[in-house]
Design goal:
Layout lengths: L3 E4 L6 E2 L4 H5 L3 H6 L5 E2 L3 H10 L3 E5 L4 H10 L6 E3 L13 H7 L7 E5 L2 H10 L2 E4 L2
Parallel strand pairs: 1-4, 1-6, 4-5, 6-7
Antiparallel strand pairs: 2-3
Length: 136
């Protein structure tokens, strides 16, 4: 049985490709003005609800700042059990498993999966000891 699923945010749960250059430039005011243009990928909401109904611990681990992630998640109506953002990582970015460890809140690493869109997401899942799933 799966006890947890951890997700990357951008380009895994939500399509934010059109804001990538603004995010990379750290022009957060402009990014925040455009959050309403971010959309969930097809099927994400149904999958999220199904996992919740089965009591699966849902987490989001992102390199984006927490205020951005919170606004995006609120906009797309997803409420993870735990959110780990950039400043929560204390410099331990993926491929370090640190964010996944924090997000799992003591759950055994072999009890779930991490989903992401980049190689470092999979490397972090490997280092943590959970299944890694790549989107795209």
């Amino acid at each position: 049985m799966i006890n947890f699923v951890l997700f990357d945010l951008d380009n895994t749960l939500v399509d934010s490709t059109h804001l990538k250059s603004l995010r990379n430039a750290r022009t957060w005011r402009e990014v925040y003005r455009r959050i309403e243009s971010i959309e969930l990928f097809d099927g994400v909401l149904n999958m999220w609800k199904a996992l919740q109904q089965h009591g699966v611990h849902l987490g989001v681990v992102t390199h984006s700042p927490r205020p951005y992630a919170e606004r995006v998640l609120r906009h797309v109506a997803l409420a993870p059990d735990v959110l780990v953002g950039y400043h929560d990582l204390h410099g331990n970015r993926k491929p370090s498993p640190y964010g996944y460890q924090r997000c799992c809140d003591g759950r055994p690493s072999d009890g779930g999966a991490a989903v992401g869109d980049e190689r470092n997401d999979l490397l972090a899942a490997d280092a943590f000891g959970c299944a890694g799933i790549v989107t795209g």
